[in-house]
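hey m, so remember when u said the tokens were messed up on ur end? i reran from scratch. heres the input so u can diff it against urs
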Amino acid sequence: MFESILAAAALLMIAIYSGYLIGKGKSKNRSDTKQMGLSKKYFVGLNYLLNEDADKAIDTFVSMLEIDSETVETHLALGNLFRRRGEVDRAIRIHQNLIARPSLSTAHRKMSLLELGYDYMAAGLLDRAENIFNELVADQAHKQASLKQLLLIYQQTKDWQNAIKVSERLQPGASSSVKVEISHFYCELAEVKLSQQSHREAMAFVKKAISADPYCARASLIGGNVEYSLGRFKPAIKAYRELIRQDIELLPEALNQIVSCFKQLNDFKGLTIFLQNAIEQGAGITCILVLAEQIESEQGDIAAGHFIAEQMAQHPSIKGLLKLIDIYLRHASDSARPSLQMLQDVVGKLLQNKPVYHCNRCGFDSKSLFWQCPGCKTWGSVKPIQGIEGE
């Protein structure tokens, strides 16, 4: 509703300005017949506007306006408004009409090109938008805006090499978040190479990712996966261990591989020490439950239950409670078993439809880990949910 009011207001301003030009005498050198024709268009346009026929109104009023230094801003503002309303075809028509005028100044032409590039982006015509922004990158006034749009294009098309090049050009005048983005672009390349079994190239990109951002936990995770796939379990553990320093919240993403590495090395004591250290550093319930499994295999389920209960006294967790109920059911009397089973079902249902991951930037929730948030498009902002319903 608000956008419709804005559009009507913009059209009304064009109508008023057109009437002003008429009254000012811009048509003094024209014949009386042409002046009468212009006046007729003015009132026809007003009629369309009053009858809420925006398509015909805009065609009428724009045809009345001479494109000069006084009216270019009006055309640009109107095109921008139509794009914001989702009427991209109209916006493209207005901006293309501006660019086609040979009398347009160089500065206004570049402004119109920039707006047309935004139009093409909104319409999904990325190849056309890319051509425009590549042209405008050479202009200092539009360089930053064009680079940002090119970065969006290369991310959408998964052209990670060009995304890195553009990011490096943005970096001198950008925030530290650009380094985070660059590291994720290298990680994307590393994952492609890992899927192709090109392990050496994958590790080369991992190193570049860590060089761009030493706290890139995703790079260490991929590096560990490369080593694991090659059967090099000690280097894999070394890579996974970096997650504790870089971002301990992401440690659960590697726990299955970590357990497997220690088991392949027949180093169960080393696994226990690794898990204990991680818990001391702040690892969540997933790590606690894995260590509980180790305790259970060595000392029995009662000892595992006591360990979980001790940990839950400091960090309450529904997942931990569910595991405790499972242990208590094994030792419950016939009279207590039905109540515990009912409690197990209730707690299980509480977890069943809960999201697992949460974007710390926009609040997007999901059951899958996204390295780039689908909601706000931020890299590295989606993490496992913490607290009683999460880690």
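this time it looks ok to me. The chain has four domains: 2-170, 171-280, 284-350, 354-391. if urs says something different then somethings off w ur setup not the seq
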